[in-house]
């Protein structure tokens, strides 16, 4: 039976065991899954050489664990409920049997298009059942999926396709996000102008938007899938065979493709879903994340399906056609577990309680939060207004790199503390370091959050650039995995994540790198250089302010601001839009030419003295100038 922690005492015991006898612990967790062949070694390698491996020697297919093995007892259980954007359109539900058949059909279709083990498939779809089906179909035939969030622009899609060398793109003709049409196929066409690796495009009919079809390259999902058999032998995968690539932003350069492998990811996704959410048979689980993010991979698709849960996916936006939509969906399907992001909670809070006054919400047992720190006010609003004071909240800390939840309360088992993620999960050993690399042992002191040893769900590398993987995560604090987050620990051992300590910005929980934002802005012909910084924002958590130096001092700031916003939207996507563009005559820099964003951030918050160690500052006069400028024209963010 599955390893489920059911009491505080058991948490203590299992946590201890996961540290003292990690191989025995994970071997027991793994024994709950279906293996074609068992492993020879639970774990090998480590952080010293960045060569960690889990369950080596094992053979498996993750979809046999998500689908086949549930057919015996749960074939008629609902696996997936789909709620479309438009509340008047009919939704769809798929039982485990139906999902299995759809996935097999799609797997056969992929093979028909020449896709096989080790090939990469890029998936660029709205939140429709075909998205879940495509992901699982890739996994079934051993193809590596690379899901790109449908809100990303053609430029971002092209970068990701080129980096992953995808052979096939699965997309849709178009869809509505709220009342806004999104011409997905035309964005895909634009991206593909410069992506020679893509040989075929599979188009799901979702809207009736007119599209252009490239003969020989494009085909319609609907036309081909009907001819495919509803059975498909799963590919036999080795434990460390790649399962997916998922791109995420870092502090430097282009987004990096984090690579997750098969066995460890599966074990970790299944284990964390069961234990953090304390999932019970027949419960309906709604995670509002898009499958284009890691939250969607692990807790829309794999984690719940590994546990034979019923997942709900919703195509639209929270406020369409009104701010009551989410609460109506919860009541309509009687959702039991609701997992969302602080930014969403804060926007509902800002809209006023009348939008959920009519909602019943009595089906809810548990609430979850993910993606950014949750402030106490939002926590209490969520607890009182949505949970009606009856539902525990799990504040789950993790990252694209961790594959699954790493620090969190176990619902109703370990204690919860507002705005604190809580205690580490079994196998996770958090350590805090000060900026000089000294370990922090006292409580209440903020430090750099590191993890001291590998866990099964950990990303293994950055696709195509292992050196960058080592450099990014294992060089700052040698022998430890560096998360990029700041964190404090209380006397009781609760962890409170304080936010990124690197040049990564979280806008509405979306992760963006200053370097990629600046690269986009610098494409503007009038911009010489730019610096992007984050500023606290009441709803989105953080917002982006861009300082730009222009060629000429006479520039229409309003026009430039709009052009910069459009440029960022086109090259990255609407999620990356700066809130404000400020034209300056220069940027504070170090003697070696590095932009000092830290100083800009302080200036934005109205600090003029106490700018930290500015002894390395090359041009203090610029700081004074910007400070004066901001005093005359304060930022209008918030
Ligand atoms: C970063 C990872 C993994 C889920 C989605 C985001 C921040 C995530 C929390 C939380 C405070 C959080 C961190 C982390 N973050 N969850 N519960 N409390 N901060 O994945 O895009 O890879 O971003 O999100 O800063 O490093 P991601």
Helix content range of the residues, please?
Answer: 25-40%
CATH topology name of the domain at 64-235:
Rossmann fold
CATH homologous superfamily grouping of the domain at 64-235: ANL, N-terminal domain
Distance between the termini: 50 Å
Quick take:
This protein is α/β, with parallel strands linked by helices and 638 residues long. Helix content is 32%, strand content 23%. Among the domains are: 64-235, Rossmann fold, CATH 3.40.50; 277-395, 3-Layer(aba) Sandwich (Rossmann fold), CATH 3.40.50; 504-632, GMP Synthetase, Chain A, domain 3.
Q: What's the layout of helices and strands?
A:
Layout: H1 8-20, H2 22-30, E1 41-44, E2 53-56, E3 59-60, H3 62-74, E4 78-83, E5 92-95, H4 96-112, E6 120-124, H5 129-141, E7 144-147, H6 154-164, E8 168-172, E9 175-177, E10 180-182, H7 184-192, E11 200-204, E12 218-220, H8 221-225, E13 237-238, E14 242-248, E15 256-261, H9 262-276, E16 284-287, H10 294-306, E17 310-314, H11 325-333, E18 337-340, H12 342-351, E19 366-370, H13 376-386, E20 393-396, E21 430-433, E22 439-440, E23 447-451, E24 461-462, H14 466-474, E25 481-489, E26 495-500, E27 504-507, E28 510-513, H15 514-522, E29 527-537, E30 541-550, H16 557-571, E31 580-584, H17 597-604, H18 620-632
Parallel strand pairs: 4-17, 6-7, 6-8, 7-14, 8-11, 11-12, 16-17, 16-18, 18-19, 19-20, 30-31
Antiparallel strand pairs: 1-2, 3-13, 4-5, 9-10, 14-15, 15-24, 21-22, 21-23, 23-25, 25-26, 27-28, 29-30
Helix pairs in contact: 1-2, 3-4, 3-10, 4-5, 6-7, 9-10, 12-13, 17-18
The chain binds 5'-O-[(S)-butoxy(hydroxy)phosphoryl]adenosine.
């Amino acid at each position: 039976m599955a390893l489920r922690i059911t009491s505080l005492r058991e948490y203590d015991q299992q946590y201890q065991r996961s540290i003292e006898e990690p191989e025995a612990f994970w071997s027991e967790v793994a024994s709950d899954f279906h293996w074609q062949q068992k492993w020879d070694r639970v774990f090998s390698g480590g952080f010293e050489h960045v060569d960690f491996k889990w369950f080596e020697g094992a053979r498996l297919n993750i979809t046999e664990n998500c689908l086949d093995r549930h057919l015996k007892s749960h074939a008629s259980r609902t696996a997936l409920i789909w709620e479309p954007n438009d509340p008047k359109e009919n939704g769809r539900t798929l039982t485990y049997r139906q999902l299995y058949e759809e996935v097999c059909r799609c797997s056969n279709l992929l093979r028909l298009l020449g896709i096989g083990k080790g090939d990469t498939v890029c998936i660029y779809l709205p939140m429709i059942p075909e998205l879940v089906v495509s992901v699982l179909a890739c996994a079934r035939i051993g193809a590596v999926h690379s899901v790109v969030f449908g809100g990303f622009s053609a430029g971002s899609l092209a970068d990701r396709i080129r980096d992953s060398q995808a052979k096939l793109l699965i997309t849709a003709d178009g869809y509505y996000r709220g009342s806004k049409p999104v011409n997905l196929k035309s964005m895909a066409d634009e991206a593909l102008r410069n992506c020679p690796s893509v040989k075929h495009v599979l188009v799901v009919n979702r809207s009736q938007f007119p599209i252009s079809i490239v003969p020989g390259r494009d085909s319609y999902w609907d036309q081909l899938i009907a001819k495919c058999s509803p059975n498909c032998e799963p590919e036999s995968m080795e434990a460390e065979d790649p399962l997916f690539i998922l791109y995420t932003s870092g502090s430097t350069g282009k987004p990096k493709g984090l690579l997750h492998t098969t066995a460890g990811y599966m074990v970790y996704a299944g284990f964390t879903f069961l234990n953090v959410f304390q999932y019970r048979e027949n419960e309906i689980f709604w995670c509002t994340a898009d499958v284009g993010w890691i939250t969607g991979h692990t807790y829309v698709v794999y984690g719940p399906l590994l546990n034979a849960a019923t997942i709900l996916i919703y195509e639209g936006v929270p406020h369409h056609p009104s701010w009551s939509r989410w609460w109506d969906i919860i009541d309509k399907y009687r959702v039991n577990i609701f997992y969302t992001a602080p930014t969403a909670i804060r926007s509902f809070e800002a809209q006023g309680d009348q939008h959920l006054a009519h909602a019943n919400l009595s089906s809810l047992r548990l609430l979850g939060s993910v993606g950014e720190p949750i402030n106490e006010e939002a926590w209490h609003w969520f607890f009182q207004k949505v949970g009606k004071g009856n539902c525990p909240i799990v504040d789950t800390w993790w990252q694209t790199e961790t594959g699954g939840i790493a620090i969190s309360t176990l619902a109703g088992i370990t204690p919860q503390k507002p705005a604190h993620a809580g205690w580490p999960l079994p196998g996770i050993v958090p350590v805090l370091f000060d900026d000089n690399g000294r370990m922090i042992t006292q409580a209440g002191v903020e430090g750099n959050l590191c993890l001291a040893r590998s866990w099964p769900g950990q990303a293994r590398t950055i696709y195509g650039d292992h050196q960058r993987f080592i450099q990014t995560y294992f060089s700052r604090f040698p022998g430890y995995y560096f998360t990029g987050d700041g964190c404090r620990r209380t006397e009781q051992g609760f962890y409170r994540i304080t936010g990124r300590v690197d040049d990564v910005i979280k806008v509405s929980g979306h992760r963006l790198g200053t370097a990629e934002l600046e690269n986009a802005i610098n494409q503007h012909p009038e911009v010489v250089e730019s610096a992007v910084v984050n500023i606290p924002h009441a709803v989105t958590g953080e917002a982006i302010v861009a300082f730009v130096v222009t060629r000429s001092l006479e520039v229409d700031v309003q026009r430039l601001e709009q052009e910069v916003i459009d440029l960022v939207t086109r090259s990255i996507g609407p999620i990356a839009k700066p809130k404000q563009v400020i034209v300056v005559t220069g940027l504070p820099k170090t003697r070696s030419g590095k932009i000092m964003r830290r100083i800009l951030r302080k200036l934005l918050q109205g600090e003029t003295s106490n700018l930290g160690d500015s002894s390395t500052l090359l041009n203090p006069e610029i700081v004074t100038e910007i400070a004066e400028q901001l005093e005359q024209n304060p930022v209008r963010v918030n």
